[in-house]
Amino acid sequence: MKNWIGRRVTILCNDKLHTRVKGTLRKWDEHNEWLVLGPHDLKLPFGEVCTIRLLPEGKNAPDAAPHSVGYIMKDKRQFDNAVLFGSEVMIWRKDRLEAYRATLSSHNAETVTLSDGRTFRKAECTCVVRSLRGML
Prior knowledge:
single chain, five-stranded antiparallel beta sheet
């Protein structure tokens, strides 16, 4: 990682909110297990760092944002990925929007459960997910 010093990076933190931090990697101290991210000299212990990615040279990478086109989830794997990645989901019951920009907390063969606790039967509703574009 020392070869990344002076380069622009984005760091996904291992906190409850999975905070993303962008800046220039200024120091990498393996002995004390921390790094310093500029321009504000933010000191992060290695234990709080989940991933580090390089930003493209000369510009800031766009933040991850939902794609304008969604797709209807039908397969178990699609529901699994929506739960895993915390994707934004819309729940439709016929032509009525029941949940907008919701996050799935779990699902099984018959139901989906949102992070706010509401449960919907898969047979009675349509779940539309929007994939993320950009760098996480």
